[in-house]
Design a protein that fits this description.
alpha+beta, 5-stranded mixed β-sheet, 3-stranded antiparallel β-sheet, 4 helices, 15 strands
């Protein structure tokens, strides 16, 4: 996770919050202090550097100070905005995961000693067939926490909702993840992660970030509270 943090610090702030509360790209606003934008993390005023031809257009703090959480907050807000918009405006938004079917007799089976007995297959669902609404910062069922996004059905209100959490550098609290609600936690490393999510949908992924000698698996997309 520390490698991800260092990479975030090297990225430039290209989205900010405008004076009317919108989340805007640096090329949508006027140059300099006339952009009237603030940092999504510390809420300090920014200056838009979007008039050059050499450097990447970006925002900088008017004070000249650095904000360590600026890029992380930008990615978090960008993920919520873009995924919500994609879900609301697409006919298909897919959920792709590995389904495991466990043997009901594995505890009594004399052939299984060191592993689980199951079959597995990839399954693909169009979430729009089950949910038609996506909202930001909605309270969870049963716990005093708020979700990044909540998918729910306005036509079948008794259908359990799906809550989505975006993890940039800090994972969600264990109390939240194991609350019994259906939760999908998605690791966002950069803007490309968000665009891939929009194009491909929510795909269960695990990567090996080990040092070559020891395996260390990190889940890019993790499911909690889903029955298997």
């Amino acid at each position: 996770m520390r490698k991800i943090q260092r990479r975030h610090e090297s990225h430039m702030l290209i989205y900010a919050i405008s004076n009317d509360g919108r989340f805007v790209n640096v090329d949508e606003v006027q140059t300099g202090q006339d952009c009237n934008c603030i940092c999504p993390a510390c809420k300090e005023p920014l200056v838009a550097k979007n008039n050059g031809l050499v450097r990447v257009h970006h925002f900088a703090h008017q004070s000249g100070s650095e904000c360590d959480l600026a890029y992380e907050s930008m990615l978090h807000l960008l993920a919520k905005e873009r995924v919500q918009y994609a879900f609301q405006n697409a006919e298909h938004f897919y959920l792709d995961f590995e389904y495991r079917s466990y043997c009901p007799n594995e505890n009594q089976c004399k052939f299984v000693k060191y592993d689980y007995c199951y079959t597995k297959e990839r399954r693909l669902f169009n979430l729009k067939d089950y949910y038609d609404r996506c909202e930001q910062e909605v309270a969870y069922d049963g716990i005093k926490r708020r979700s990044d996004l909540k998918l729910f059905s306005s036509t079948v209100p008794q259908r359990p909702p799906i809550y989505i959490e975006f993890c940039v550098t800090h994972a969600s609290e264990q109390e939240k993840l194991h609350s019994g609600n259906k939760i999908i936690e998605i690791l966002i490393e950069d803007e490309e992660s968000i665009f891939s999510l929009i194009q491909s949908g929510i795909v269960e992924k695990t990567i090996d970030v080990g040092d070559g000698w020891q395996e260390k698996l990190v889940k890019l997309v993790a499911f909690y509270g889903f029955k298997v």
